[in-house]
Amino acid sequence: MPTSGAQILITKWEGASMRSALYARVSTNEQRKESIADQLRECHELCGRHGFGVIGEFSDYGLSGSETNRPSYQRLLTAARQREFDVIVAHELSRLWRRESEMHAVREELVNLDIHVLTDDGIDTRIVGMDILITVEGAMAKQELRQTAHRNYPCIPDEVRSAGDRPGAGPPGDAHM
Question: What's the pLDDT band for 106 if we cut at 50, 70, 90?
Fold first, then answer.
């Protein structure tokens, strides 16, 4: 729990163990497969520090956070809509979302479902005013996608690369565009 004077929202779960769903993701095949296991281990530790029970683990391997069709991510959202848990726990916000539009739309839905997000890098939507930090984190994730696209495809003009708000999607004509 935050000890720096941050104000925690009073919810129906105060004093009770929140049910958590853990989410981990690596975006490329070059990343170690163990990275998902490492992320989940850190999520379990975070849940232990907050007294959360874990109801399930969801993970996607080799898929970008800018893609919304990630199978486990979609299963996580389905479980959220069925109110199977109270909080999503991830290593970093970027493991869940890389696109601001997706992040804001899903965050609004989660707020309406009274489902919180907690990450090992300091996001805790139970804290008043956390939406400001989430917006900053989302903008940083978007910029990181653009930088990755620029490193991977330096010969493509910026206006072509960012067409359709698809940073990191690949070169023109790519099947993913």
Answer: very high
Phi, psi (5° rounding) for residue 89? -115, 130
Rounded-to-integer distance, Cα 10 and Cα 96, Å: 25
Work out the burial of residue 135: count CB atoms within 10 Å of its CB; fewer than 13 is exposed, 13-18 middle, 19 or more buried: middle
**Degrees to nearest 5, angle at CA 119 with 26 and 60:** 25
What are the tokens at 20?
């958590």
CB 22 within 8 A of CB 90: yes
Calculate mean pLDDT across residues 26-46.
Answer: 85
Long-range contacts (CB closer than 8 Å, 24 or more residues apart) made by 49-53: 49/1, 50/1, 50/18, 50/118, 51/17, 51/18, 52/17, 52/18, 52/19, 52/20, 52/87, 52/89, 52/118, 53/17, 53/18, 53/19, 53/20
